[in-house]
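Hi V.,

You were right to ask for the full record rather than a summary. Here it is.
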Amino acid sequence: MSVASALAAPLPWQREDWTRLGARIAGGQLHHAMLLSGPAGIGKRLLAELLARTLLCRAPVAGTACGRCRDCELFAAGSHPDLLRVLPEEPGRQIRIEQIRSGLTGFVMHTASVAHAKVAIIDPADAMNTHTANCLLKSLEEPAPRTHIVLISDAPARLLPTVRSRCLQVRLRPPPPDDAVRWLRETSGADDAPDLLGVAAGAPLGALRVRERAGLGGFDRVADVMRRATRAPAWIPPLVAECAELDLVELLDWMFLFLLDLGGVLARGDVAGARIQRAAPVYTELLPVVSAAHAARSLRRVTEARRDATSTANPNRSLLLEALLLDWHEGVAARRTA
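Predicted structure:
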């Protein structure tokens, strides 16, 4: 079992939020619709699970699910009849309107089967298109008594204003950087915690997932390829071949992070504030030869390439990467000869 999958809420930076939610539950004042939002990788889903378990538990202890009653056993087994999860049928796909119209609507209009409450979790809520979200509105307005709908979103701005306005909004935040580094080191023993958090935009669970997926080796490989691609002469196809075992989308993600961090270094004119300090020697080498404008242009091209790679366009991997690196090389070469 991975470290990330073994974690339980409330995580240290969630305790104040959980205390407020727990007080609402204990006082019978919890809103029937809640929107848990915040950056990816900070534990929103863990907190939603704790919220659902506690709402269904028939004998909470100190305001939290007891873990021993029949409801908690059913929850742990994934077979509680009063818990509904509304998820995309495949990662990255939209939630279908029928999942709301036929599934959620009927669930929220009927009384609980075995527990004293019912909970529906919609994850991620921003996977609903406009028609699906509009279909959800009636359920958000008129659920059966003691029925709670929990929406989870990394990007709440994508939700319809009418959906957001019907929810109690709980905006979760990542821990301060020093606390995040300390927690990551204590949890996983990661010596490279600052760099892991750097690539995960300060999200501790995101950093854990990076570490469990072979860590930062992919980033180091891409940073070295980007460095060598700026040299004259640089033979691009062999550089692309060096990354053959990396998944295309993962590789493009590493390129995006590298260029984003490099752009900040170029804007400041030094590497002191680089988010990913392990790449500081590469940034130092590139400072004199890469312009901020060229780094920004390359970042846009990588973003476009990633969009193509995750769509039905099915681009040719080698041609796509060679075009990106050739453009990167030529932009640096043009500045050298200017």
